[in-house]
Amino acid sequence: FFMQTSEMLQKICMRNLVRKYCRGLAAERKVQLQQKVVTSAVFSGKKEGYLESLSQPFLETRLKENDLNPKVLQLIRGENIKYVTPVIKYDRNGFKARERLLVLTQSSAYVVEMAKIKQKIEYSTLKGISTSNLSDGIVVIHVPEDNKQKGDVILQCEHIFETVTKLCILANKQSLVKVVKGSLRFRVGSGKEGTMVFTVGPEPQVFKDKTGQLTVV
Prior knowledge:
With 217 residues, the protein is an alpha+beta fold. Helices cover 29% and strands 32% of the residues. The chain has helices spanning 2-24, 27-43, 50-53, 70-75, 160-171, and strands at residues 81-90, 97-105, 108-113, 116-122, 128-132, 138-142, 153-156, 177-180, 183-189, 192-198, 206-208, 214-216. The strands form 2 sheets. Strands 4-3-2-1-7-6-5-8 form an 8-stranded mixed beta sheet. A 4-stranded mixed beta sheet has the order 9-10-12-11, with no helix packed on it.
């Protein structure tokens, strides 16, 4: 009986300590922990660099709203901008690298070039998010095959864990994130598909190989 009482008291004490800790968390710290839990669920044991990312706090955004071109702000007026980060976008056909911004609002993801919106993806239509198990920063945003979309979006992000976590939380699509090995297929448009191959080499690079595939080293 004494042992049972002691165990019960220990559990009650621990519960009270946890409750006190949670209530004392600053709002910013609480958001960090919530985001890191999602990152763990998506990447832990699956992608290289995850353990090193644990000690790196996520920023609220990499660029401020007023860093965006006024024309872009005008085009997405009424939407609450949550996160903005510089990215490299690879063309779906020739795989040419282009500097872009990824803008995440409460309802959509935008790929932005200076004063132009190059592509808009509503979260409700998002079909999946893919990244590799290696240490590259590639993420593919899979979109539906319809007239509104040109094809899947191939991006390279410096802060891959942060960016993918923000995207899947805002889109509420955590279950659609896939960490792949070896290769993945992406939609080019007009019913066509392309292949991306992930490999290991002496230095990071992304290029179109002789077979026409996008190779990420």
